[in-house]
Amino acid sequence: MELYSKRKKATENPPSAYRYDLPIEFRNQVWHIWNDTIGYLERAPSRSVLYHGLELSDPRSAQIFGIYEQINKALYEEHGITNLPGLSPCHALYQWFQNADTDIALDIIQVSFQGIAYFESTLSAAEAVNKLNRRFQEHAIGFRLEQGRIIRIDSEFLHAEAVEPALQLMYAEGYAGSLDEFRLAHEHYLHGRYDDCLTNCLKALESTLQKIIELRGWEMPGEAKFDNLFAEVKKKGLFPPFLGSHIGELKKFLQAVAVIRNEEGAHGDGSVPNEVPDHLVAYQIHLTGSAIVFLIRCNEAFGKTKS
Questions:
Q1: Domains of the chain by range and CATH?
Q2: Contact 181, 204 (CB under 8 A)
Q3: Which helix (H) or strand (E) element contains residue 50?
Q4: CB burial class (10 A; 0-12, 13-18, 19+) of residue 245?
Q5: Which of 47, 74, 90, 207 is a Cys-bridge partner for 177, taking CB atoms 3.0 to 4.6 Å apart?
Q6: Alpha carbon distance, N-terminus to C-terminus of the chain
Q7: What's the pLDDT tens digit per position in 152-195?
């Protein structure tokens, strides 16, 4: 439902500059998604009480309690706590989510939506994710849930054109190693571990080249570093022939991922910490996504021309 107040707010405050906190209105909307998918029971099961039309002793209520218990257990273990106060697992999670800082609240969203993916409801897991991402966008919050993980975004256009296609291609085409490393880069970025983010961007790019070489049955270089991997795929004709002398420029473009990582993310800090700028890391992620999409598409086109 698109209300006038929401359209007016979107017009007055277009999501060109993102925020990275989670306002209470957004948190309440996440609760509504939980309620529409898993359900919500505030009190422990009792045969004498009905809640949202359910007798709390019926199988459905037991299923609701079970899924919230699993979500809570996963979160408690990761955050090193034993339990939280509440009338039920549902209530405890809701109370925690309402008051948690942004990082923990994002963890709660990620784990709860992983739980939704395995739960049968009238609102499908895909619909729930789409609804969550619409809420992120509506509030101009710079996060998205992609393939079960919370990632941070800085530009809607660049995310749609570079990051999301890269994630989808790596998943669909079987680039599991690259996908794991690119996801890990996003996780490091989300938590401000910028040097680790840069390192995993380079790993994702190198893994993509390695996978292409493996798929083609070409000879793997003795040292699987970017320069050697690029030289091998270039020698085998992976890139379109019309690029001609521009191959050198292409290498510089792809190599920028390696250069940035080596300059900013691979040196010891010494006595003065090496602060990696936030905007440089965002650029690196988008650059890596674009590079991976390009390489996978080149491999697809190569297969068609050689078949």
A1: 10-152 (no CATH), 156-306 (1.20.120)
A2: yes
A3: strand 50-51
A4: exposed
A5: 207
A6: 50
A7: 887 666 777 778 888 888 888 889 999 999 989 888 887 888 88
- Report long-range pairs for 121-125 (Cβ below 8 Å, ≥24 apart): 121/36, 121/37, 121/38, 121/39, 122/36, 123/33, 123/36, 123/37, 125/37
Long-range Cβ contacts of 117-126 (<8 Å, 24+ apart): 117/148, 118/67, 119/37, 119/38, 119/63, 119/67, 121/36, 121/37, 121/38, 121/39, 122/36, 123/33, 123/36, 123/37, 125/37
* Of 283, 279, 274, the residue nearest 253 (C-alpha): 283
Amino acid occupying residue 190: L
Give φ, ψ of 52 to 5 degrees: 50, 40
pTM: 0.62
* Tokens encoding 102: 């942004």
Burial class (CB in 10 A: 0-12, 13-18, 19+), 123: middle
The 10 Å CB-count burial string (b at 16+, else e) for 147-160 is eebbbbbbebebbe
Whether the CB-CB separation of 154 and 20 falls below 8 Å is answered with no
Listed in sequence order, the residues at least 6 apart from 272 whose beta carbon sits closer than 8 Å to its beta carbon are none
pLDDT in tens, 77-122: 999 998 888 878 888 999 999 999 999 999 999 999 998 887 766 6
The answer for 39, left when phi > 0, alpha when psi is -120 to 50, beta otherwise, is left
CA angle 132, 138, 142 (to 5 degrees): 75
| Residue 245 neighbours by CB under 8 Å, 6+ apart | none
The CA-based dihedral angle spanning residues 105, 106, 108, 114, taken in that order and rounded to the nearest 10 degrees? 160
- Phi and psi at residue 152, in whole multiples of 5°? -95, 140
